[in-house]
């Protein structure tokens, strides 16, 4: 079964009309239980190598220790910062939205972080040169008009040997979303740049960083988002503004059904291996781990 799934990537790129030859067992209704789509997404992330509690790795290959000075640029809700705070690191987190920064600062007051340093701003950080050892910038660069400027600032504040965790949406996902999402999805302040794998690598290396590892994941979220936009369109609720702020529960039953199905699928024997193959065919996110010389 896994060999057939792995062949799907080559056939997708060749433009074949491909169907996935997997027979998923039918689970009787009395054996099923609804899972929150966000919790399913977290489970999927962990199976992709994220939030590894025992090894203190935010993602495989990106370990955080108490001695680290951790910077989360564009922190949003702060999942990455919270993970670093649990390890006792000095955490610095920034966002252009003060409400998000304030909420995260309040959330971390009782954490194990040895220092909490909130910042509000966009492309200029109120930090001294070479102050951070671990730097995260996830799902931010696609939103800005000058990603090179952001990268230069992140490199400025990193110490020699600092490690960087950088992510942007995968081009496969973005191209598919054009068939489902409203035009606002690709307008400012949303996704104004679609990075090919090569463009993303050039951006990182052009800033002076050395790429250590690349990864991709998120088939679950590609399908979830496609279904989300389809449901919104059917209901006449297509957003025209800040689309990401609207992705809150309660969700359409179809989205809950997809989460239930995916949860069952990845917990089948061989399900994790199949998930990784599908992540390679249609990833939501491309990941680069890099280091400053």
Write up this protein:
This protein is α/β, with parallel strands linked by helices and 293 residues long. Helix content is 38%, strand content 21%. It contains 10 helices and 10 strands. The strands form 2 sheets. The protein has a 7-stranded mixed sheet with strand order 6-5-4-7-8-10-9, sandwiched between helices. Strands 1-2-3 form a 3-stranded antiparallel sheet. The longest helix is centred in the C-terminal third of the chain and has 16 residues, at 219-234. The chain starts with a helix and ends with a strand. The model is unreliable at 1-32 and 240-245 (pLDDT under 50).
Quantity of strands, as a count: 10
Distance between the termini: 43 Å
Helix content: 25-40%
Largest sheet, described in full?
7 strands, mixed
What is the beta-strand fraction? 15-25%
**Strand order across the largest sheet:** 6-5-4-7-8-10-9
Q: What integer is the average pLDDT?
A: 88
What's the helix-strand series? HHEEEEHEHEEHEHHEHHHE
- Please mark out the parts with pLDDT under 50 across 5 or more consecutive residues, or reply none: 1-32, 240-245
* DSSP helical segment count: 10
Return Rg in Å: 20 Å
Which term fits the overall shape?
globular
Main structural class = alpha/beta
Short précis:
This protein is of the alpha/beta class and 293 residues long.
Tags for this entry?
293 residues; three-stranded antiparallel β-sheet; alpha/beta; 10 strands; globular; disordered N terminus; seven-stranded mixed β-sheet
Layout of helices and strands:
Blueprint: H1 2-13, H2 37-47, E1 50-52, E2 57-59, E3 62-63, E4 69-73, H3 79-86, E5 90-95, H4 98-107, E6 115-120, E7 132-138, H5 147-157, E8 158-169, H6 171-177, H7 197-206, E9 209-217, H8 219-234, H9 253-266, H10 271-281, E10 285-292
Parallel strand pairs: 4-5, 4-7, 5-6, 7-8
Antiparallel strand pairs: 1-2, 2-3, 8-10, 9-10
Helix pairs in contact: 1-10, 2-9, 8-9
